[in-house]
Amino acid sequence: QAQLVESGGGLVQAGGSLSLSCVASGISFATFAMGWFRQVPGKEHEFVATVSPSGGADYYGDSVRGRFIISRDNAKNTVYLQMNDLTPEDTDVYYCAARPMGIATRADRYTYWGQGTQVTVSS
Question: pLDDT band for position 43 (50/70/90)?
Fold first, then answer.
């Protein structure tokens, strides 16, 4: 059974950094594209970043491009999100998600989801 578990969320001041991790189990991790999304309750998932199965391709949402970096370690079944220069607008619950094969930016293209980790940025 597939399971994704995020960690690394917390409280940080504006301008600071946080690193999120997501460990996958129950899937052939190296054949899945991984994505990060964020969501405020009552709103749709906002695309943050995605990385291809090999790690050779990635893509970012407009609001985070240049500040966030997605990476993966297939030996550890783990995807990371390094978040830099955080602002209060980055406050959200962050979710990792997995889909077979290629990258995608739409949440409905992802098959498996984690439970989320809260990121709060204070001004």
Answer: confident
